[in-house]
C-alpha cells in the first residue's frame, strides 16, 4: 500500500510506493516539483537539487 506524504513546496499529497528508496526522485502532481526522499523512517521529502551543468568538461 502506498504512503501519502505532504509536498514541502505546495502541501499537496504525494503518493510514495512501498518500494521507495533513499535518495529516490519523485514528482509532485500538484506543483510539478521534483522531490527527493531524504529519510525513510520517518519518511521525509525535500526539493531535489537542481542539476547543474559541469563547465569543467
TrEMBL record:
<dbReference type="InterPro" id="IPR005906">
    <property type="entry name" value="LysW"/>
</dbReference>
<dbReference type="Pfam" id="PF21344">
    <property type="entry name" value="Zn_ribbon_LysW"/>
</dbReference>
<protein>
    <submittedName>
        <fullName>Lysine biosynthesis protein LysW</fullName>
    </submittedName>
</protein>
Amino acid at each position: 500500500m502506498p504512503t501519502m506524504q505532504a509536498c514541502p513546496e505546495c502541501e499537496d499529497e504525494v503518493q510514495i510506493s512501498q518500494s521507495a528508496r533513499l535518495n529516490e526522485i519523485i514528482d509532485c502532481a500538484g506543483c510539478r516539483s521534483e522531490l527527493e526522499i531524504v529519510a525513510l523512517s520517518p519518511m521525509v521529502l525535500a526539493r531535489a537539487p537542481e542539476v547543474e551543468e559541469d563547465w569543467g568538461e
